[in-house]
Amino acid sequence: MTALDPATLDALTRARYVSLTTYRKDGTPVATPVWHVIDDGHLYVWTEADSWKVKRLRRDARVKVVACDVRGRIAPGAAEAEGTGRVLDDAGREKVRRLLGRKYLMARLGDWWAELSGRRRRRPIAALEITF
Asked: In this protein, which residues make up the domain named Pyridoxamine 5'-phosphate oxidase N-terminal (predicted)?
């Protein structure tokens, strides 16, 4: 993969949400708006381990990310990039949890509540790393 140009990297970094597109077996794209954080040129996402996006990513590593709003609406000219994704191990997942907590207050609160309520043990979380 090639590195993103600085303007695209900056626009994706500043975006509150990105539309993460993964691909079904038949090649149909499926886009989902997600919280994200960029660190050291990689984009990271936090999601439930049994989500369809994780299943699709394990089968086909191709992804596309586009800056969007909370509903997944993409503005004309929004920053976008294509790359490959992978599911991280436990150490990577903890790194992503900390990074997202710095960017999103609600991520910290949700993480605190998941720990307190026991939800984290019942619904495992996966961290995804997107490389451009």
From this structure: 5-129
Going residue by residue through the chain (132 aa), what tens digit of pLDDT does each one get?
A: 567 899 999 999 999 999 999 999 999 999 999 999 999 999 999 999 999 999 999 999 999 999 999 999 999 999 999 999 999 998 999 899 889 988 886 565 566 556 656 655 556 889 999 999
* Model pTM score: 0.86
**Are 132 and 83 in contact, with CB atoms under 8 Å apart?**
yes
| For the chain, domain boundaries | 6-131
Counting DSSP H helices and E strands in the chain, the numbers are 5, 7
